[in-house]
Amino acid sequence: MRRNVFRLAWLLVLTGSELLALPRIHPKGIVNAASFARPGLPGGGIARGSIFTIFGSDLGSEGGSPPLSFPLGDTLGGVAVSVTQGDVTVNAIPIFVGPGQVNAIMPSGVQLGRASVRVISRGRLSNPSSVEIVESSVGIFTAIGSGMGPGIVQNVNTSTDRPINSPRVAAAPGQLVTVWATGLGPADFPDNEAPEGKTLPTEVEIFVGGVQVPQLDINYSGRSPCCAGVDQIVFRLPADSPRGCYVPVMIRTNRDIVSNGVTMAVGDTGGQCADPANPFGETPFRDGAFGTVVLIRAEVEMTVDVPQPFELRADFAVGSLRRETATDFPFERLTAMPPPGSCAAYAAKGSVWRGEGFPFLPQAEPSLDGGDELTVFGARGRRSVSRLANVANHFGGLLGGRYEVEGPFGIRVGVTPYLNEGGYSISAEGGADVGAFETDVTVGAPVVWSNRDEVDVVDRAQDLTLRWTGANGSGLVGILGGAFDGPTDSTAGFFCLAPANEEQFSVPAMVLSTIPASRAQAELSEAMVLLWNLPAASVSSFSAEGLDGGTALAFSLTGKTVIFE
To answer: Is 182 exposed, middle or buried (0-12, 13-18, 19+ CB in 10 A)?
Structure first.
């Protein structure tokens, strides 16, 4: 009896270990291999003939992905990928296999609509994961492999001289460039053989800094002859392309689905880019230790899912002390500003509105110890914010605000605002890596959003025109907007810059179309549009022992919650 119990226990142990080794696809873990757009977002479908990525665990062996050769097979390194629609199952074409990631080509002949994808690794079957198969959905490959930032764009100088575009190697207006992507749509030749170099029938529109490339200047849009599933789009840059280090590039197919937003560098004569309108400097290359401190005054009208509208006021101080390494493809969402008059589109996991991702500060690591607090001093006294425990190299906290609520017995309670127009000093006591510093910054008057009451429901199929006054004719007005979508746990949004003295700007419908529609259940969506005024006087520099440079800035946000439809 005891022996039988022992055998049964050993069998359960062995069975449990096998179960633990089963390949597993992460929730919402199947995405376009270039854009990483999450399923459920606009652009989150998997195009026929495109390369898609499966994220998970125990998907393949640790030994590295085997080399490829044509014709490609249905298995690679003992890994296969099945695609099931109803009672029909076909094999995708794996082109990379690893323990946490598998890349495969979606066959051009699959049907449109929902499908179930599974990984078969070493004879073991993964959990099924649902995908939406679409005709086309372009993802542009990026230099930092995140789905945002500098795109993989080649400057075509000659037939043999085609360097990768970067802030160090800008393209000139009128020059031919090649964008590398995946998702143009199905091919009429076998997906597992060397691609034929011919333009696909998919209608393609290209926008560089908001300027549309004339159709006659699109020379090619089809598979790359080198690589199955990889697309190339060759076009000539418009003469009126905006100049800058981070000029947005977006591609739309069949007048419907818009790609991820990437950037490229454009200069008058090529060479190293210049970005004189960017308050963080003319060039993005920095190597050393740097600090950034920001004062933010935010006033947001809460109008969605509330009994009656009310004004939320919050005053923040945030800071970052970090080490940066200069690269050919530098990118931070705050410092990588688009040229004035254009918009960049971004998408990220989590909710930016809840502070996940900290869009107002660089994300570089490792952190530098500059003390435990940032201290702000102004007309209303002294306030301090502490180092954030869960975010390396960041300080942050609330300085004051106003959020009045009805308390017991009808008493209204709230927080006192702190930031007003005028000068403030910001200081830190210093630490092991960065010495003590103090700098002054000026909080300007908030821009007056003059047509705010007209913007409640935003039609994503129409341009969104915003008007303002009170920007004093100098500096820039930034426009931030977007939505957090609960079911996909992601935020999609836009960041536009406009000259303050123009007093109006229209966010293109194409940019708005990348944002998910607000859900009928208000708690599943959080959507806002924000304007901020950044006059030149609100940016200053500071120095400290252990730092190669520091930037302090202040701005006032005004905005409201909205519904995107």
So the answer is: buried
> Do 113 and 203 fall into the same domain?
no
Same domain, 532 and 433: yes
Q: Six-digit token pair at 509?
A: 């419908």
pLDDT of amino acid 409? 43
Most distant CA atoms of the chain, gap in Å: 90
Q: What is the residue whose two structure tokens read 């957090």?
A: 484
Please report whether residue 366 resides in a domain. yes
Beta carbons of 469 and 448 less than 8 angstroms apart: yes
Beta bridge partners of 322: 290, 367
Nearest of 146, 116, 125 to residue 46 by alpha carbon: 116
Domain that holds residue 100: 20-134
User: Tokens representing 102?
Assistant: 């598998």
User: DSSP class of residue 315?
Assistant: E
Q: Are residues 75 and 162 in the same domain?
A: no
Distance (Å, whole) CA 239 – CA 250: 17
Same structural domain, 422 and 532: yes
If one compares 406 and 264, the residue with the highest pLDDT of the two is 264
User: What is the chain's alpha carbon radius of gyration, rounded to the nearest angstrom?
Assistant: 26
Domain assignment of residue 388, yes or no: yes
Give the CATH number, domain containing residue 225: 2.60.40
pLDDT tens across 474-512, in order?
Answer: 688 999 999 999 998 889 999 999 999 899 999 999 999
Residue where one domain finishes, among candidates 134, 167, 202: 134
Closest CA to 279 of 264, 263, 294: 294
**Does 7 reside within a domain?**
no
Is pTM beyond 0.85? Reply is: yes
In degrees and rounded to multiples of 5, residue 261 shows phi and psi of: -85, 125
In this structure, are 315 and 256 located in the same domain? Answer: no
Which residues, other chains included, contact 141 with Cβ-Cβ below 8 Å and sequence gap of 6+?
A: 34, 151, 152, 180, 181, 182
* Residue 280 within a domain: no
